[in-house]
Amino acid sequence: MPESPEVQALVEELGERTVGRVVREFDVLEFRVVKTRPRPPADLVGARVAAVARRGKHVDLGFDDDRHLVISLGRHGWARWGGADAASGAPPVLITIRFDQGPALELTDAGGWVSLGVSVVDDPAEVSAIAKLGPDPADPAYSRSDFDRAFAGRRKQTKAVLQEQESIAGIGNAYSDEILFRARRSPVAHASTLSGEALEGLYEATVGEITEAIAARRGIPIGELKAAKVAAMRVHGRTGEPCPGCGGTIRDFAFASTVGQYCPSCQTGGELLPEPVGR
């Protein structure tokens, strides 16, 4: 799942390569992707890209006529430049955007079901997922009070709060694992049980992890961002490997409809969390 550090790097590259360019063609190969049927992407033909911004895990292409194309990447969506040789097994292209100059932008989806979505709107807040976004820890103005509002009185697991876009924008499964490991906190502890000291450490881990990851991904070509993210993970996706903190073994745990990773020694006082069924 694309998360804010990789989406920020994508947005910055799109900004460098598309701002000032005019849309010449929208080729929609999968019509389920279009979420604003009365306003299809083809309506943007002739418009000039004025700005590209990140909103949580969404991409916002702003045009010179004040319209916006919001790209919701979902669980499996991503982008690549046309003309590059696609690797064997590369995800299918669902939308191609051609400009007056330079390569086309291809939007892809690697999932078994379509999670990518695009919307043509006058205001990005017309997209409900953006309207509901909470504060973003990558924002320099993000504060401890913003963070505390997400956790105060919540009888919800800490990992779930970190991934709740209405409370904290931009974090998904991978970075929530990394944040919790950095803070040495259990992913399943209820938010309401965290002390002030624990919240301070988790706040610092959240801001540090996201801002440092954004800086680390900056300038990496969009086709290499997924590999860069995987390589940077300390616990996420590292099941069975030695913990970089204590040398113990990284383990899986069942979380909602997915799987997370943690170090029992560093994060849960040695307690083993329930593993996914079949493990």
From TrEMBL:
Keywords: DNA damage, DNA repair, DNA-binding, Glycosidase, Hydrolase, Lyase, Metal-binding, Multifunctional enzyme, Zinc, Zinc-finger. Its cofactor is Zn(2+). PROSITE patterns: FPG_CAT, ZF_FPG_2. Residues 234-268 form the FPG-type domain. Pfam families: Fapy_DNA_glyco, H2TH, zf-FPG_IleRS. Residues 2-114 form the Formamidopyrimidine-DNA glycosylase catalytic domain. The keyword Nucleotide-binding does not apply. It catalyses: Hydrolysis of DNA containing ring-opened 7-methylguanine residues, releasing 2,6-diamino-4-hydroxy-5-(N-methyl)formamidopyrimidine. It comes from the Bacteria. Belongs to the FPG family. This is Fpg/Nei family DNA glycosylase.
